[in-house]
Amino acid sequence: MAKSLGIKDISASQVSEINKGLDGMVEEFRNRPLDAEYPVVWVDALYEKIREGRRVQNMAVMIVKGVNMRGMPQILAVEPMENELEETYRALFARLRERGLKKVWLVVSDASAGLQAAIRKDFIGASWQRCKVHSCATSWRM
Asked: What's the pLDDT band for 2 if we cut at 50, 70, 90?
C-alpha cells in the first residue's frame, strides 16, 4: 500500500508505528457517543478474512448505518463477529445502547432469524423492513 502511495522505503517499525496511530483512531470511532434517536437504521454483514493472533479466518463484519434526526447518514458501527446468531446481534446492539442509542423507528436488514429476534428484543417498538436488495437477490436465485 505504501508503494502505491509513492513511498519507496518503509521499515517494519515504521509500519508498526503507523498502525498504532490507526488503532487509536479506530477505537475512538468505535467508542464515540451516538445520538439517542435514529429514525432509520440498516444492519448488514459482509464476510472478510480477518487475522486473529496468528490465524486468518472468514468473519462477519457487521455494518450498522443510521440516519439521524437531522437527516444525516452515519456509520454507527463496524464490528467483526464470529457468527450471525441472535446473541451476537444482541451484544452488538448492547454496545450501541452503551454509546447512547435509545430509540430506533425502523430497522432495515436481511431476513436472518437471529437478527430479527434481536431487533424485536432490543429495539422494542421499532418497525422492521426486509432490505429490498436482499429480497430481490433471493428472488433472482429462484
From this structure: low
The number of distinct structural domains making up the chain is 1
Sheet with 127-130, side-by-side order of all strands:
73-81, 55-67, 37-52, 103-109, 127-130
Range of the domain at 82: 34-141
In a domain, 133, yes or no: yes
Say which residue the cell 478474512 belongs to.
49
Q: Assess if residue 121 is contained within a domain.
A: yes
The amino acid occupying position 48 is: E
Mean pLDDT, the chain, as a whole number?
A: 86
Identify which of 63, 73, 19, 29 has the alpha carbon closest to the alpha carbon of residue 43: 63
